[in-house]
Each structure stands twice: as structure tokens, then as C-alpha cells.
Design brief:
- With 56 residues, the chain is mainly α.
- The chain has one domain.
- Helix content is 57%, strand content 11%.
- Strands 1-2 form a two-stranded antiparallel ribbon.
- The longest helix is centred in the C-terminal third of the chain and has 19 residues, at 37-55.
- The radius of gyration is 11 Å and the shape is globular.
């Protein structure tokens, strides 16, 4: 739902990850072309943490 997406984006931002919405229900993850593997792993870790928080 749009409300869940909004909450996900807010929590991700609080953890230091900027993710944008796309359409009404989707999120957009668009790192720079020169992003390191470590930064991708950090972003995925934050996404996992936020999802766990929201389903706990």
C-alpha cells in the first residue's frame, strides 16, 4: 500500500539510506555507476533491517 511504502522510505532514510518511490507502490534503488560492492551490501543490510522492523 502507499502508506506502507511511505513508512518503509521514512525508516530507510532514518538508517541513512535514500530510496525513492516509483509509481504508487514501488521503490526505486538507483546507485551511482561507480558504487562499490561494500556500499551495495550496506544498502541491502539496511533494507533487510527495515523490513524486519516493519514485520516484527
Amino acid at each position: 500500500s502507499p502508506a506502507l511504502r511511505k513508512e518503509f522510505l521514512r525508516r530507510a532514510f532514518e538508517h541513512g539510506l535514500l530510496i525513492l518511490g516509483s509509481g504508487e507502490l514501488s521503490i526505486r534503488f538507483r546507485p551511482t555507476l561507480d558504487v562499490s560492492r561494500e556500499r551495495i551490501e550496506e544498502a541491502v543490510s539496511i533494507i533487510e533491517r527495515v523490513l524486519k522492523e516493519m514485520t516484527a
